[in-house]
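Case study.
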Amino acid sequence: MALTKRQTAELARQVFEYAPAPESIDHVKIEPRYGLFIGGRMVAPHSRRRFPTINPATEKKLSEIVDADEVDVDRAVKAAGKAFDSWSRLAPSRRARYIFRISRLLQERARELAVVETMDGGKPIKESRDVDIPLSAAHFFYYAGWADKLEWAFPNRKARPLGVAGQVIPWNFPLLMLAWKIAPALAAGNTVVLKPAETTPLSALLFAEICMQAELPPGVVNIVTGAGKTGSLVVAHPGVRKVAFTGSTEVGKLIQRNLAGTGKHLTLELGGKAANIVFEDAPLDQAVEGIVNGIYFNQGHVCCAGSRLLVQESIAGPLLEKLKRRLSTLRLGDPLDKNTDIGAINSKAQLEKIQGLVESGVEEGAELYQPECRIPERGFWFPPTLFTNVSQSYRIAREEIFGPVLSVLTFRTPAEAVEKANNTPYGLSAGVWTDKGSRILWMAERMRAGVVWANTFNRFDPTSPFGGYKESGFGREGGLHGLLPYVELS
Amino acid sequence: MEVRKTYKLFVNGEFVRSESGRAYRPDGLVNVPRGSRKDLRDAVKSARSAFAGWSGRTAMNRGQVLYRAAEMLDSRAAQFAELLGPARTARREVEQAVDTFVWYAGWTDKLAQVTGNVNPVAGPYFNFTIPEPMGVVGIVAPDESPLAGLVRRIAPALCAGNAVVALASETRPLPALTLAEVLATSDFPAGVVNIITGQRRELIPWLASHMDVNAVDVAGCNAEEVKSIEEAAATNVKRVIKNPAHEASPYLVAAFMEMKTVWHPIGV
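After joint prediction, the assembly is written out as follows.
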């Protein structure tokens, strides 16, 4: 029986109650302290400094992590350098087998990895379970297949590996970023020294265990933990021939400057301030889901997040009404609960950054909307937030917030939408919502961004290249293009 | 008595004196404009204005424009003879430059087929990756082969759909300025190619740090220049293109391009 309009509206107003459904954690074993993964085994560090990694949802300490120093990094790079000779000469089909093995082990241990990722980083278990871990495994599986097909990837050219790759990754998708970095590097015959983020080192340390389980030759993958200083040591080490960094544009520029004249190969995947553009003919309910996915997925800790909503003026009213209603149904809380939509903010420092930018938005004159939601007493939390009455000059419209904060702007003509969308130094991604095919292609052509999602948002796949225009960095990760940064063509 | 030519910069499709009024004499005889920061700025500005139109042309049309440049160059081969040294060397270099334009003229409408992809993503989505031009590309020409060396760098950048600001060889700038005369009578829209002469030490820092330049090609640079360009490039995360000076390949064209990936759901 069809529902009347009124009944539908009534239903939409109801907020369903859910009983808690926490994922069990008793199958996960987190060591009280970890060493470094160098030369194929966990070793005691030279550095005496350690720091705690905590669960941002509870502020409880999970483990103690090494703050690796110069000697540790040097050992790791040397181990990788030593392994390079044999790894790069290994029959490509054997290289492929090892990477396939890693992919399979990630699948076998998927649940454990998902729980650790959620505990260490604060992201909802449904996201780590359904997105981070499966995509990580898929990424290794995809690149495993390339290892013995490089001559088909680059016709008329011989592709040679570069040597030791020094890789520094962020805390928003710890294992997935590791996969994006390590899988193509190994497939092309390079060896790796990877530094996971300070606040989310645990899945990388579990990955070290997986390398051992896969019997990956010693030194092919090395993992050193630490903060920014350790990362800069990895990047600066003379034994490193290729640097890959994912993180803020600020640090990316610093790395680019520091590597000048060293002859090291460099790829950067940096910040973003993506426009998500909704035209008046778009299916509004789908668009609302896309907007929510675009900015509130992973608490907005996403470099390609659709943080600027550009709505065609004629539908701004009804769209915002639907969007606000939808925000009130988002469940914020225990990231381990399978019903949770919005987890914990990754760290205290990040929470303070978000709070600061939101305050600036209010001060500059934007109108704040936050749905009512219960914020847990402990841990770091920020409710889904929406700003209207935003001018392009406001900080919340220009700067990457990296939190669940959406700035809404309006436009009248497609040309104005293009102008506003591209009016940023960033160029990582963009979203377009419209029913008109020719307009999708017209908009896609004009977006100065590496990824354009039309009538969808935040989709990822190992076969699909990802990376930015302009100050969002250079180089692509994923797909055939993702191999290029890890080879020399002759 | 001959009528001598005053050499000028090539900016926005016009031959202009350096705003600085300065000149230098690389061979001790001819006055060559010593371009300034402001000349460079004007060149970048004209390249930026020309970019949308040039990149918006059809691939085939861009190919024809590049081919027309080859035609014009070939017909003026004699003009380069005395600029490029002994007759045989000069002829060979002009031929190389002509070949380069012709070769890349044929790439404009094939490049997306060779470097683009349809990606078989999991799930009901159609996903494709296409190469797109970067925007304004700065090129530092090599001193060696002052004509062919320059054409080997600008042709792939233009083939990609970029607008170019090129610094001519400092020691042998005349072939570059004569090439400008060829380009001025070809079908390139004004501003798509701009050629500046002068002292590299003076100009490179401004080119490398200019916020509206998307990439710099350093094939013609020495190690020290590469380092200074790479440092300054970080200001706006410029791409620094380091492919070998003699490379001729679609990979070089792709180095002057950005890969864009587009997703759309499949459904009824």
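Observations recorded in class. The first helix of chain B runs from residue 37 to 56. The radius of gyration of chain B is 19 Å. We will return to this complex in the next lecture.
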